[in-house]
Amino acid sequence: MPSLFITRQKVQRPRRPSLSSLLISLSKLLLIFESAFSFIPVTLFPLSRRDISLWSLVNSGHDIDTSSSQNPKLQQQQQQDVVIVGGGIGGLAVAARIAASSSTTTSKVVILEKNTEVGGRCGSFWVDRKNNEQKELFRHEQGPSLLLLPSIYEEIFTETTNKTASDYGLDIVQCVPAYQVIFDDGDRISVGFPAATSNNNKKGQIKQQQQQQEALSRAKMDTFETNGATKWDDYMDITSAYLNAGLPNFIEERFDPTSLPEFLIQSLKNFGRAWPLKPHSDVLDEIFDSNKLKALASFQDLYVGLEPYRNGKLLGGGVFQSTAPAVFGLLAAIELHPTNDKAGVFAPIGGFQAVTSALERLVIDLGVDIQCNTTVTGVTNDGVWIQKLQSSNSDGTADEFISANLVIVNADLPYAKKSLLLDDSNGDNYDNSANNNSIRNESYIHQQPPTEKFDWDDNFSFSSGVVSFYWSLDKSLDDLNTHNVFLSTKTRSQAEASWQVLRDQKQQKASPEHTEKNENGNDQDDYPFNFYVHRPSKTDPSVAPSNCDAIMVLVPCNTLLRDEECSKLPRKEAMDRYQQQFPPEAVLRIRRAVLKRFAAVETLNNLEDHIIHEEYRTPATWADRYNVAAGTPFALSHGFAQLSLTRPGPDSSRLPNVLYCGASTKPGNGVPLVLIGAKQVAEKANSILASSEHTKSS
Ligand SMILES: Cc1cc2nc3c(=O)[nH]c(=O)nc-3n(C[C@H](O)[C@H](O)[C@H](O)COP(=O)(O)OP(=O)(O)OC[C@H]3O[C@@H](n4cnc5c(N)ncnc54)[C@H](O)[C@@H]3O)c2cc1C
Question: Which stretches within 9-114 are classed as H helix?
Answer without folding.
Answer: 19-36, 49-57, 63-70, 89-100
